[in-house]
Specification:
The chain is mostly beta strands. The protein is 14% helix and 38% strand.
């Protein structure tokens, strides 16, 4: 062995590692199989020459790069476990691999396209993980790609090429040589490999120019070329001639070397091999995406022209233009080929079971920051990069709302307070700002914040925080500030808790302009990169079966960007115009238990059943179908709690059943009035509106001659009203402004109403008298129903995901536990959104929504 050698005998110890056998040796040191005596696992130990320990700069770079490799926790990258020194020689410890290098796998013969695509896709995913950490390999070649016995691809020797002895760029390029592989573990790397190996260098490396991640993409293309053809793309008699070919020549046609090669694969390779880095794929994530969406066997239409063919295309277009110009003289003309249509391309971001929502692009326009409830866990914030299957938890609970250009997040924290907090991505503790917030967005200056919140029962758009910019008559679902900072886009909804509506903009003086309306299930809004359009998701038409992403100009011109089946919703748009969308299943579920039953029964009917009420005897539930099955304007159904088929009563949004069970109250969404629908024989009957613009809820008073409802007047104020059904007279307000209920909590004698005034539960008179607090009520109590016993009111209080139901005796001020209800399968499920009880409190039904969605980036949107 040379004097610089560090040959180690079997049984020797390098710290906790016991050497078993020598695997291979070379100018860059020796590789040993060893046993980690602490964990009992086999590892590979690469011991480097002692000369590295005497050069502080090389040793520092070695330790820095080894630690960087140790940061790369990815299944397609060799795992680095440890570093250390042995008798003055540095060593690095990694996982021990068994299989063969890609060089051995190719062995001079083309690989089957499907197998080559699979290996290349794994290769690309591993390389993407490194690039995401800011690590550029700079020495990619078949020798540094390993295929385990199980078919797993591993990229080797990250950054180790940088520790070779320092030489001049001219001498460096003259000394480049191929690397000989070893059978097991980490292959050796020869001296003189600072910038790579001749046949696998990028043009910028050959010119000794700075090499970034796009140099790795070029090398990736060279390796993929060799996998598909069995030969290097550039190979000459000497290293200098090889490098000259890389700089000046196109690689030989792949089809000449590999029969039945899918054109898509050749286009991917050649797009990687553009001489100019600006013309290559700009991200290895994009390469991985194209590989994973290409079968490796089929022939498809043109998408990525090859460098040589692109030049030929330019020449053909020039000749064609000349011929067209000469056509009038010689009677010859050329009909230009119609441009190919580029379809939107979908790139998966998340993969787990649960719901990812909301989500935003990070300032780089590619990284995605999102909130999710994976596998039934509480909502938390994660980061992910398209093309990589793994997400990283940021250890922040709650829902991400906005991200500033400097990388600071706005998050609504979990809990009933809906507290808005700000914190940097990846570090720092949340700083609380204001509570009661539904949505928020940073202004372009990164300082001011616009919010949607409810204060004293009134919906408010505030910008900046604390300044009421606009008070919507219904409610705004979400908001986004324009790139210029002068407009705020909102989704607007005329009726509280109803997703129908449209999109509007509000200027800095508070003036609202509606851009689109009359849409179903209106979701999030975003701005186009140029600020000339508002993009949003919605369903259009009568119970539309699919959702679309729409664009509307500031003048109100509407167009469709992209559509998708199922629940397809916009989350964000990047500065490059890419869309971030969620897609999957969102379906409400009704669970109930009728009189004498011992098991819960599923009581939903079609595709979007929304619970409204339960009859006093607990034998029927009333609900609305609010999607495709219900059609335009929804549909009203009743169903027995024993699970027998549902009966359709008519159009509208269901509200409540009469005490005698003969009528259902519903909101006619077409005429914007309340209507009575018979549950048996009879005809529907409309109730005059008298200037009320919206009806979130309505119910019957005892005797069924008078109704009680939550109404919104033309000024946008919400309160409770009573109205006679006999004469349809003017509604009479019975509660203060913004004191409302969403289900029937009227006393059996029809004289009193339990409602939350924002501070506590109170009993309000429906005629004469003063309101008074409910004795025995606790913070967080929600009134559910007044019992058939006039002294008892049923309330529910949420703790975590469980509804705790109590009976409060309003005479004695005592509370008695009745039941605890929770959704059994928590994956993707909301908490209980609505709970209804029978008059005796023994039967119940509740509503929750299960959402199973993942995130996708959509490219090529125009």
């Amino acid at each position: 062995m040379p004097s610089n050698s560090t040959s180690i005998a079997p049984g020797a110890r390098l710290g906790p590692y016991e050497v078993v056998a020598l695997i291979g040796a070379g100018g860059m040191g020796e590789v040993y199989r060893a046993k980690d005596t602490r964990l009992g696992r086999d590892v590979a130990v690469k011991v480097l020459p002692r000369s590295f320990a005497t050069d502080p700069d090389r040793l520092r770079r070695f330790e820095q790069e080894a630690r960087a490799a140790g940061m790369l926790n990815h299944p397609n990258i060799l795992a680095v476990h440890d570093i250390g020194t042995h008798e003055g020689a540095p060593y690095v410890v990694s996982e021990l691999l068994e299989g063969q290098t890609l060089r051995e796998r190719i062995d001079g013969s083309p690989m089957p396209p499907r197998k080559a695509s699979d290996i290349a896709a794994q290769f690309a995913r591993g390389l993407a993980a490194a690039h995401d950490k800011g690590i550029v390999h700079r020495d990619l070649k078949p020798d540094n790609v390993f295929i385990t016995r199980e078919g797993r691809v591993k990229i080797l020797d990250f950054g180790l090429a940088k520790i070779a002895p320092a030489i001049s760029p001219a001498a460096e390029t003259a000394m480049l040589a191929e690397t000989a592989p070893v059978a097991v573990g980490v292959p050796r790397t020869e001296v003189g490999m600072v910038l790579g190996t001749a046949s696998y260098m990028s043009p910028e490396q050959i010119r000794a120019a700075p090499a970034d991640h796009r140099s790795d993409i070029f090398a990736f293309g060279l390796v993929f070329y060799e996998m598909l053809t069995g030969r290097p793309a550039f190979r000459a008699d000497s290293a200098i001639e090889t490098m000259s070919a890389i700089l000046k020549a196109d690689p030989p046609r792949m089809a000449d070397r590999a029969a039945d090669l899918p054109p898509d694969l050749e286009r991917i390779v050649l797009h990687c091999l553009e001489k100019n880095p600006e013309e290559r794929f700009q991200s290895i994530h994009d390469v991985a995406f194209h590989l994973e969406t290409t079968s490796g066997t089929s022939t498809s239409t043109k998408s990525l022209p090859a460098p040589a063919s692109r030049m030929r295309l330019v020449k053909q277009l020039a000749v064609g233009a000349a011929l067209i110009g000469a056509g009038a003289l010689v009677g010859f003309s050329v009909k230009p080929e119609a441009p190919a249509t580029t379809l939107p391309a979908f790139e998966a971001v998340t993969f787990r079971r649960g719901s990812a929502n909301p989500a935003r692009f990070a300032p780089d326009g590619r990284t995605v920051i999102y909130s999710a409830t994976w596998d039934g866990t509480p909502q938390s914030v994660y980061s992910a990069v398209p093309g990589s299957p793994e997400s990283r938890s940021l250890d922040v609970p709650g829902a991400v709302r906005s991200i500033s250009k400097s990388g600071e997040m706005l998050v609504t924290m979990p809990g009933g307070r809906r507290m808005l907090a700000r914190l940097p991505i990846g570090s720092g503790a949340p700083r609380e700002l204001v509570e009661g917030v539904r949505d928020a967005d940073w202004a372009p200056n990164g300082e001011d914040i616009a919010i949607l919140r409810n204060v004293d029962g009134r919906e408010r758009l505030q910008f900046p925080i604390g300044r009421d910019l606009h008070l919507p008559s219904g409610y705004f679902g979400n908001l986004r500030i324009s790139p210029g900072g002068d407009l705020i886009a909102v989704s607007e909804h005329p009726v509280l808790l109803d997703a129908r509506g449209g999109v509007a903009i509000v200027d800095l003086q508070g003036k609202k302009t509606t851009l689109a309306e009359g849409l179903e299930d209106v979701g999030r809004v975003a701005w186009s990169p140029d600020g000339k359009e508002v993009w949003f998701s919605a369903a259009q038409g009568a119970g539309a079966a699919d959702h679309s992403i729409f664009a509307v100009t500031l003048e109100g011109r509407l167009r469709r960007l992209v559509s998708g089946p199922g629940h397809f919703a916009l989350q964000d748009a990047s500065p490059a115009g890419d869309l971030l969308v969620s897609h999957g299943l969102r379906r409400p579920a009704i669970v109930g238990r009728g009189p004498g039953a011992t098991e819960d029964v599923e009581l939903g009917w079609l595709d979007y059943s929304v619970l409204a009420d339960m009859s006093g005897d607990g034998r029927r539930v009333l609900f609305a179908e609010q999607s495709v099955g219900g059609g335009a304007g929804y549909a009203v159904y009743v169903r027995n709690t024993d699970g027998t088929p549902a009966v359709r009563l008519g159009k509208g949004d269901a509200h409540s059943l009469s005490h005698d069970g003969r009528w259902a109250l519903a909101h006619d969404l077409t005429g914007h009035t309340l209507q009575l629908l018979p549950t048996g024989p009879g005809q529907p009957r409309s109730i005059p509106s008298h200037g009320i613009t919206a009806y979130p809820w309505s119910g019957f008073l005892p005797g069924d001659k008078t109704i009680l409802f939550t109404g919104t007047d033309k000024a946008g104020v919400n309160r409770m009203y009573v109205q006679s059904l006999d004469d349809g007279g003017t509604p009479r307000p019975v509660t203060p402004d913004d004191v409302t209920v969403m289900q029937n909590t009227v006393s059996p004698d029809g004289k009193w109403l339990v409602a939350d005034d924002g501070d506590e539960l109170r009993i309000f008179p429906l005629s004469d008298g003063e309101s008074r607090p409910v004795p025995g009520a606790q913070p967080g109590d929600e009134p559910i129903r007044w019992s058939s016993d006039p002294d008892v009111v049923f309330v529910a209080n949420v703790a975590g995901q469980t509804q705790h139901v109590h009976a409060i005796n309003i005479v004695r001020g005592t509370r008695t536990p009745m039941m605890q209800l929770a959704v059994k399968d928590r994956v993707g499920a909301s908490g209980i959104q609505r709970l209804v009880l029978s008059a005796d409190g023994k039967s119940y039904a509740y509503l929750y929504t299960r959402t199973l969605q993942n995130l996708y980036v959509v490219k090529n949107v125009r």
